[in-house]
Amino acid sequence: MHAYGAHSIGKYGSDDRHGAAAGLVRNGHDGSRYREVRFAGTRSGFVCAWTHRSGGGVARIVPDNHADFIVSSTGDRWLVGPATTVDLPELPAGTLLHGARIHTAALRAVTGAHGPELRDTKIPIDDLLPSRIARILTESLTEGRFGEPLARTLWPDLRIDARVDTAVAALTDSAVSIETLANHLAVTPRHLRRLVETEAGLTPKTVQLIGRLQRAIRLVRGEPDMPPALVAAAAGYSDQAHFGRDARRLTGVTPAALGP
User: Fold this and answer.
1) What is the Cα–Cα distance from 208 to 204, expressed in whole angstroms?
2) What is the DSSP secondary structure assignment for residue 118, as one 8-state letter?
3) What pTM was computed for the model?
4) Total structural domains in the chain?
5) Is residue 258 in some structural domain?
6) CA 47, CA 112: separation in Å to the nearest integer?
7) Tens of pLDDT along 144-184?
8) In which domain, by residue range, is 101 found?
9) Which strands sit side by side in the sheet containing 96-102, from one edge to the other?
């Protein structure tokens, strides 16, 4: 597991269709600040560009089905791959991070790497991308000018597998079975599982697991008075205990600690 990931820093995370939800390290709660500029659609391969200034201490970073390119004021430049468990990096006060969040279905298309090789990893950007793209990406992130037009310029031939994009969206938002999805997409379940993992770096089961947790977090944050049992049911859990187990495994805290 990477020691210093930043997807979900200052927030619990977001998927490609829903906005970011404030998290345990909330804007202003500990002196930290998180800002993002979201991109339209999926054609660029990115969800948003973001900045985070740490207020110091330990950040709680939970899986959100995404990978990020990150440039730090300490001089580090890396890709943080999609995570499958909570990370608790200690960020010195004043550390400034600039990032670009990659669409779940676009991980292989953007990086050129086999998706599973990037899961729970941290890789220097210069070791992953062609030198020209790495240089322009890191410079533009540092200067706060990385946006959708530049992303399309750097990756002009980007192609996202439409089947994977459809599958990731459905898995993130619902309890649909892989068999139902495969039938809809006219492929075998085995082939669809392999496609999703290759392109997104995560198995369909993991994408669905994390998507369900993120739905629950949005409900807890948006409806703080909603009873945990109703949150669990609305998010798609079999019961409250199921929600509690997933919350502790993926965030390291109980559902009660996910609220405002």
Assistant:
1) 6
2) G
3) 0.86
4) 1
5) no
6) 18
7) 999 999 999 999 999 999 999 999 999 999 999 999 999 99
8) 11-154
9) 33-38, 46-53, 96-102, 67-72, 77-80, 122-124
